Amino acid sequence: MTDIKHTVLHDKHAELNASFTDFGGWDMPLKYGSELAEHKAVRSTAGLFDLSHMGEVYFTGPDAGTALNTALAGNFTIMKVGKAKYSLILNEDGKIIDDLIVYRLEDEKFLVVPNAGNAPVVAAALAERATGFDVVVENASEATSLIAVQGPNAEAIVKELAADEATAAAVEELKYYAAVRVVLGGVDVLLARTGYTGEDGFELFIANEVAAELWDKVVEAGKAHELVPCGLAARDSLRLEAGMPLYGNELSLERTPFDAGFGPVVSFKKEENFVGREALEALREQTPSRKLVGLKGLGKRAGRGGYAIVKDGQTIGEITSGQPSPTLGYPVGLGYVDTAYSEIGTELEVDLRGKTLPFVVVELPFYTRAK
Q1: pLDDT higher than threshold 50 for residue 1
Q2: What's the DSSP call for residue 193?
Q3: What is Dmax (Cα atoms) for the chain?
Q4: Which pLDDT tens digit goes with each residue over 261-313?
Q5: What is the C-alpha to C-alpha distance for residues 371 and 355, in angstroms, rounded to an integer?
Q6: Are 336 and 298 in contact (CB under 8 A)?
Q7: pLDDT per residue over 334-365, tens digit each?
Q8: 211, CA 20 to 30 Å: which among 131, 145, 172, 320?
Q9: Nearest to residue 363, comparing CAs of 351, 346, 339?
Q10: Is residue 90 a contact partner of residue 97, using CB atoms and an 8 Å limit?
């Protein structure tokens, strides 16, 4: 068994008396104090996250877009420079190896960001799938750190790190699901505006050597904007309210994009025969046996991952993620149910360790920020 990994910001978290947890083989801050307070800070002011456990894989060369079109489910040759796209990497059976984000940095350069626990597997698969193409695949995960600032005050905080008006304007003008190279706090940064919390926010990709320096500068800039360091517990409750899937919960090697409602993420229009295409082509006209749905609890107790979803005494599904919503004040959950019971408004029950309580299928996301 390999030793657990530490990000280069681990000492910063220890200084803040963080509680740590193993996540994807990394020793990551679960929370610094109250996970509820951290959650509410992201919804009302701003939160600061260390996401350096995520992976970073670069595709560079004349065939970069075509190689990615073969490796992943999306269509990347049609992307504009500076834009980002959510995508999936599949196996030959059309099942989900990971979900990820792809940024087109230049005409012939892309950045693929897989999840922490899957990063080594995805990097290896991408390198293998690029064989025969005029492209260089570089796994920069070990050399790269990633800091995220999320919440209503995120833009104001990041702008304070800009040395001039042009950089501040670049921050302000950056669109959702886009990225730009800028200098912030004297550090070269790939700045992205994506996020996983349901709030406005930024991700700062940087070299390991400058991560601690930039973390301190973000903390300092955030003091006037009520910035709070946040751990994985708040990140999980935030993404659940926003209806965003987590690999290992909603997404897995047991699920296809169609099961998870991600059919539109798959490009069948592109010419390339991407891995998993043949299997998915055979499933396109079929209705999945189970679908991923959002569930609102009508009682006070939340369904947790693995709890059975019941209709008329029969198990018809399973919760994949669930907890009380700090923002909305009632239990929310994601889960797979037999397709016959997946319509909005369907009343179901969840077996909470021997006691069933009422839930109803609702439209996702549970929470949407005011624009």
Answers
A1: no
A2: -
A3: 64
A4: 999 999 999 999 999 999 999 999 999 999 999 999 999 999 999 999 999 99
A5: 40
A6: no
A7: 999 999 999 999 999 999 988 999 999 999 99
A8: 172
A9: 346
A10: yes
**Could you give the CA distance from residue 230 to residue 99 in angstroms, rounded to a whole number?**
23
Q: What angle do CA 36, 10, 46 make, to 5 degrees?
A: 35
Query: What's the distance, Cα to Cα, between the start and end of the chain in Å?
Result: 47
Instruction: Extract the tokens encoding 354.
Output: 């021997």
**Tally of CB atoms within 10 A around 19:** 14
3-class SS at 165?
helix
**Which strands form 84-90's sheet, in the order they lie side by side?**
84-90, 96-106, 109-113, 57-60, 136-139
Q: How far apart are CA 241 and CA 364, in angstroms?
A: 9
Span 46-81, pLDDT tens digits: 999 999 999 999 999 999 999 999 999 999 999 999
Whose tokens are 């919440």? That residue is 151
Contacts of 152 (CB under 8 A, 6+ apart): 43, 44, 45, 46, 199, 200, 369
Quote the tokens at residue 192. 């992205």
The set of residues, in sequence order, having a beta carbon less than 8 Å from that of 257 and lying 6+ positions away, is 73, 88, 90, 94, 96, 263, 265, 266, 280
Residue 132 tokens, joined = 């025969």
> Residues 6 or more apart from 282 whose CB is under 8 A from it?
none
DSSP-assigned beta bridge partners for residue 100: 87
Residues in the chain: 371
